[in-house]
């Protein structure tokens, strides 16, 4: 069902500072930067092998990431597993009894299709299912 870890999501207070840490000090290339309106985040993707670190900073106080930062401070936010078929992965998660945050896939960064599973049902790890957009 899942093919690999697509990315790990890290909540950060300042995106430029976090990019400087990952790019300049850890040596990961900055591959993409985008404001994802419906999630209320500005995000950056840095490459690590075939996977990514996704840095997330809130665009406003209503953002889930803003609430996370308030509650827990900066740090590991979610793990994203890649699938070739988000509809199948979501249906399997549903029938396996997981508590879904997204009943239907949403559009995520780089036009991927994503759905989140509640950490209360995954042993405390906010889990994202992600089907990347077709590459052209
Ligand atoms: Co993510």
* CATH fold naming: 2,3-Dihydroxybiphenyl 1,2-Dioxygenase, domain 1
CATH architecture identity:
Roll
N-to-C order of helices and strands: EHEEEHEHEEE
Number of strands: 8
Strands side by side in the biggest sheet: 2-3-4-1-5-8-7-6
The stretches of 5 or more residues where confidence is low (pLDDT under 50) are none
Using the CA coordinates, give the radius of gyration.
14 Å
Principal-axis shape equals globular
Helix content: 10-25%
How much of the polypeptide forms β-strand, as a percent range?
35-45%
Mean pLDDT over the full residue set: 96
Structure description:
By secondary structure, the chain is an alpha+beta fold. The protein has one domain (4-131): 2,3-Dihydroxybiphenyl 1,2-Dioxygenase, domain 1 (Roll). It contains 3 helices and 8 strands, in the order βαβββαβαβββ. The chain has helices at residues 15-25, 64-72, 86-95; strands at residues 2-11, 30-36, 41-48, 51-58, 75-83, 106-107, 113-117, 127-131. Strand 3 (41-48) and strand 4 (51-58) form a beta hairpin. The protein is globular. The relative contact order is 0.20.
């Amino acid at each position: 069902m899942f093919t690999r870890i697509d990315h790990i999501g890290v909540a950060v207070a300042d995106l430029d500072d976090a990019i400087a840490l990952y790019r300049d000090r850890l040596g990961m290339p900055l591959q993409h930067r985008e404001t994802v309106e419906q999630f209320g985040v500005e995000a950056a993707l840095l490459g690590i092998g075939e996977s990514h670190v996704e840095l997330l900073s809130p665009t406003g106080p209503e953002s889930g990431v803003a609430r996370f930062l308030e509650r827990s401070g900066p740090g590991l936010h979610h793990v994203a597993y890649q699938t070739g078929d988000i509809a199948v992965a979501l249906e399997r998660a549903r029938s396996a009894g997981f508590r879904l945050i997204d009943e239907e896939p949403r559009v995520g960064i780089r036009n991927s299709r994503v759905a989140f599973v509640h950490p209360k049902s995954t042993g405390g790890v906010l889990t994202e299912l992600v089907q990347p957009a077709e590459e052209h």
